[in-house]
Amino acid sequence: MTNSRIAAIDVGNDSLKGIFGKLESEMNIPNVIARDIEDRPIIGIEELDKQDPLDGLHIRVHSPALQDNNAIYRVGNLATKSNNSTELDPGSSKSEEDQTLVMLFASLALDAAEQDSLFKKNNNVIEANYTLGTGLPLREVKEGKDVGYRSKLLGSVHQVEFLVTPRHQGIKVNIKFDEVKVYPEGFAAFINLVMDNNGNIINKDLIDKRILIQDIGGLSTDIAVIKNRKVDDDKAQGFNLGVSESLEMIREEIRSKYGIELDSRRDVVEIITKKNDRNHIMVKGSRTSVHEIVDRILVELAKKQYRHLRNMWQKNSQTEICYFIGGGSSVLKEYIKTLNNNLDGYNIDFFEDENESIWMMANAYYKLIADFSRKNQKQDHKREDEKKLAKTK
Ligand SMILES: Nc1ncnc2c1ncn2[C@@H]1O[C@H](COP(=O)(O)OP(=O)(O)OP(=O)(O)O)[C@@H](O)[C@H]1O
Ligand SMILES: [Mg+2]
User: Fold this and answer.
1) Cβ–ligand 1 contact at 56 (below 6 Å)
2) What CATH architecture does domain 5-189+362-383 belong to?
3) Which residues sit opposite 231 in a β-bridge?
4) pLDDT tens, 234-267?
5) Is 135 a pocket residue for ligand 1 (Cβ < 6 Å)?
6) What is the position in ligand 1's atom list of the atom closest to the CA of 14?
7) Cα(145)–Cα(165) distance, rounded to whole angstroms?
8) Residue nearest to atom 7 of ligand 1 (CA)
9) Cβ-contact 277, 176 below 8 angstroms
């Protein structure tokens, strides 16, 4: 397996997180796509190339794995600005949506185009080989959907053609997978907690404990139950409740009360999590508190999340600790801690660094796929050594 680049990709409902190669590049793309019905205006090449490719992902995707083959999409930031953009519906199945594949292929193609010296290139066509680690919600793995998803990816070559995209216009990337591993999301989080980047166990204390992992994302919350170093499929639960809706409500109240138009949910997150002057905005040049709005809305969500926790703990009474992960957990951290102190006092833990919380899955897939790839190479070497030995006999 020469020249197979490692890719670890978490296609979250809110955003895709990707880690590539030897940990040298990372990518975060909002999970938004828009089918192109009108042509994207041709932009002067000089003007276009000044932009960041991440702000102008405009692609045609050709793959037998897609229901809609050969369609043109705007992806990520560019799609956000489009009025027919689609975000994943919380009730849908990640493994069965074209959107999941379009996001996945777009990120891989962008990585390949930026690292084209690693691959064979003929004219404008890059032949990109990847070893992919990715995941699906526990629910879908439970239904066996990971098998079909994996074979769809492995079974063919997927082509991404960059259209009006900064720096890569006219480039085609043929993506081929040498190996694909599809991990259940909850299990992956557990792995990240107990394993380092070299496949060593780092948390001996934790590994045999019974733990819960509550992953609060943009649109959904998943609670995994870990026992005997395995996820208990039957106990895991998922809810269509994330933090995006509350962030949207805060944004709307700030707009109606102060006439301040925040560009995105990301701006709201910035206001409510920044170290200095948290929960304050400038209104006509005056520093203004939005504490009341933020508290009211987030306490409401924290209560709902806490109810789920309580429910799970009741059903799994021998649980020793619950970890809160995902972007939603960093937003709700203080609220959930306060509720817990005043109510049941469960043994719960959060991650200090919000990036650690958000990148938990992608990091886990990286550890798992890198470990797999290392072992595979060892196997290959061993086989070669054996062959050599056999010859010398
Ligand atoms: N530092 C941060 N950077 C980006 N988003 C953040 C940050 N802190 C909190 N968030 C918020 O957390 C949410 C995203 O969380 P996360 O990335 O865990 O979701 P996801 O995994 O994409 O979605 P899901 O788990 O529903 O599939 C967003 O609503 C985002 O606004
Ligand atoms: Mg997630």
Assistant:
1) no
2) 2-Layer Sandwich (3.30)
3) 226
4) 888 888 899 999 999 999 999 999 999 987 888 8
5) no
6) 22
7) 33
8) 327
9) no
Could you tell me which residues come within 8 angstroms of residue 295 by beta carbon, excluding any fewer than 6 positions away?
335
Token pair in block for residue 2:
């020469």
- Residue type at position 27: M
Residue 109 C-alpha to ligand 2 middle, in angstroms?
22
Instruction: Answer for the pair 3, 118: CB distance below 8 angstroms, yes or no.
Output: yes
The CA-based angle 209-215-221, given to 5 degrees, is 130
* pTM across the whole model: 0.90
SS3 3: coil
Residue 1: pLDDT band with limits 50, 70, 90: very low
The answer to whether the CB of 216 is under 6 A from ligand 1 is: no
CATH architecture of 202-239+298-358: 2-Layer Sandwich (3.30)
DSSP for residue 95 = G
In which residue ranges of the chain is CATH 3.30.420.40 found? 5-189+362-383, 202-239+298-358
In the reported structure, the alpha carbon of residue 186 is separated from the centroid of ligand 2 by a whole-number distance in angstroms of 10
Name the nearest CA neighbour of 109 among 150, 158, 148, 63.
158
Q: Using CA atoms in the order 273, 279, 282, 283, what is the torsion angle rounded to 10 degrees? A: 140
